[in-house]
Amino acid sequence: MHLAAKPPAQLPLPLLITGTTGVHGYAAMGYFQRKYPGQVVGICQEYPPQEVGPGVIPCNAEDPQGIARLFDRFQFRSVLDGAGSCALKACELNRAMAWNANVEGARNLARESARRACRLVHVSVDLVFAGRRDGGYTEDDIPDPVSAYGKTMVVGEKVTFEGNPAACILRISLPMAISFNGHAGAIDWILSRFSKSRPATLYYDEVRTPTYGDCLNRLCEKMLGNQLAGLFHAGGPRRLSLFEIAQIINRVGGYDPELLFGMPRNHAGPIPPRAGNVTMDSSKLIGALGYNPFDPWPLDDALVPTHRNWHRERPHGEPRSLPHLLKVLANHPARPSDAEFGDQNVALHL
What we know:
This protein has 350 residues and is an alpha/beta fold. The protein has helices at residues 23-35, 49-52, 64-74, 88-93, 95-115, 148-163, 186-194, 213-224, 242-253, 283-289, 322-330, 336-349; strands at 15-18, 40-44, 56-58, 78-81, 119-125, 168-172, 175-176, 200-203, 207-208, 211-212, 230-234, 240-241, 260-263. Strands 3-2-1-4-5-6-11 form a seven-stranded parallel beta sheet, sandwiched between helices. A two-stranded parallel sheet has the order 7-10. Strands 8-13 form a two-stranded parallel ribbon. Helix 6 (148-163) links the parallel strand 5 (119-125) and strand 6.
């Protein structure tokens, strides 16, 4: 693979993107490749790179020598690090895997990016909190994760700042977009159940601050192009439970309402342990940027559930289909160019 001549850019190029098989990393590869053709490289280790997409090559972020060779080859000037494992149960059952994926990879990228004076934006998660209170977590709140995933993500933040004090860490919630394999994200996991007429059980009391993947891509571009350092919460302005998110997908997609079940998280099994209300206050980020980078998900207030049977209501004339769902939930409905890219991805995996 050879990089093209550098086009005019809003961020230092070339750009390395890790975690390309995750929801955010996969969406980011499409966004940045379209905007900066020939200047974006993605890495993965779990799948054959050609299956993930153009510009993705095999490399293990947990291998420091491999990362050093990668930087030697491409001379990166910025890194968007979204690597790691967010599989809650797998992390719980294999703590060594969780540590390697969520800590050692972050450590290697932080050290190498600092040594090369690279801009580094590291992506963390709201599940560093337990959610035992009514949400609204700020950057000053002390993490208290309940899962192995959350615990290793906390350490990943720590080693990132130790290795590269100039780094920016964004704690995100649920990026609402389609993943590479059609199962890794909130939208496509729920879709994978409903579209096959299989039931899905979600929690009434696990509450998140989801964001459109399109908004998150633009935020990462902004942060890669500035010098803001430190920790920032990057959650959307609308609070939704996992059950409410599933209600929205069920109704907008026109799926059988009998397929959706809800329960309190304390009725679930002990593995993996579930967090509660981990909604984040993103005021610090908004203040640093001078604007709110996130529109509410979903954008249309009429698509927000008002009660637990809301998804069973099917008003006459309300559009309900998979294409409509992809247009208004998996992509920002006011950004048609991104919606077109997202629809193509979905056609491949659902």
